[in-house]
Write a structure and sequence with these properties.
This protein is mainly alpha-helical. The chain has one domain (2-254). It contains eleven helices and no strands. It has helices spanning 2-24, 26-31, 34-50, 52-80, 82-94, 99-109, 114-131, 137-161, 176-195, 200-223, 229-254. Helix 4 (52-80) packs parallel to helix 8 and helix 9 (176-195) packs parallel to helix 11 (229-254). It is globular.
């Protein structure tokens, strides 16, 4: 029982520490790498040819297809580990759950359910639409579409892998609750960063908060036995992977990626929200 509490604490502490380390380490090196540079050039060419709205749509569809292609074999691997990994973990947790702590985890894990997040998505879309004034259609469209994007990509993967669910829950591969938290609160964090002039530290903090929320959602789904442990681990990777492509597509749509002028001559952003 004590070990389950330790794992719960680690599910908060580890992502809280790993988030900034990844952002300032591999994340920064990757952003300055050759692959990102080539991607920026390709996107710039598409923007010139197709315009920003169509380029954003093409990019997010391409990214979704790439995510499906990567996580399909990962799902097959997870399915093959069901007897060796999932069942032993499920039985181990079953013997060590505490009723009071279980109540808390049932409360928290509901955050990743569809119904509450639908309300969060609608409210966020309306709030940012008001803040963006004449460009209201960008947050209104982008935030509202974040929900079906995750839902359908996850549903496609679930159907392709078709691994079933644990006898104690209906969770499928990969964990949709984790991915929905990443997409929903990630979209809110993204539009906070696009709306107000914030330092890189604030960007990293916002991303880390979302990552912590998602990791503990994964722990709670395992604790209340809605998912196999391999569904949870896959969801923690799947959610951020899908969100990355979504975030780039939103930045393309908003005119923030790629930059239209060179950094050396670009005027600093002085407004709190995009110009009306």
């Amino acid at each position: 029982m004590v070990l389950l509490y330790v794992i719960a604490a680690l599910s908060v502490v580890v992502p809280a520490v790993a988030g900034p380390l990844l952002a300032y380490g591999p994340g920064r090196r990757l952003a300055g790498g050759r692959l990102v540079g080539k991607t920026r050039e390709a996107v710039a060419g598409l923007v010139t040819t197709l315009g920003r709205p169509l380029t954003a749509v093409v990019f997010v569809l391409f990214w979704a297809a790439a995510v499906i292609a990567v996580f399909w074999p990962v799902g097959l691997l997870a399915h093959s580990l069901e007897d060796a990994v999932d069942w032993p973990v499920l039985l181990w947790v079953t013997d060590r759950r505490n009723p009071s702590f279980e109540d808390f985890n049932w409360f928290y894990t509901a955050l990743g359910d569809r119904d509450p997040l639908k309300k969060v998505v609608v409210v966020a879309a309306v709030v940012f639409a008001v803040l963006w004034r004449k460009r209201f259609w960008i947050p209104l469209t982008a935030i509202l579409l974040s929900f079906p994007l995750e839902q359908y990509v996850q549903a496609i993967l679930s159907g392709m892998v078709n691994r079933g669910h644990p006898p104690t829950g209906l969770g499928s591969y990969p964990s949709g609750g984790i991915a929905r938290i990443v997409m929903t609160f990630g979209a809110i964090a993204l539009f906070i960063a696009l709306t107000w002039q914030l330092s890189r530290r604030w960007h990293v903090l916002l991303g880390t908060v979302v990552f912590v929320m998602a990791c503990y959602e994964g722990y709670s789904r395992m604790y209340v036995q809605k998912h196999w442990i391999t569904d949870v681990i896959s969801g923690i990777v799947f959610g951020p992977a899908l969100f990355l492509g979504y975030a780039i597509a939103v930045c393309i749509l908003a005119g923030r990626y790629p930059r239209e002028t060179a950094p050396s001559v670009e005027a600093p952003r002085a407004e709190a929200v995009p110009a009306a």
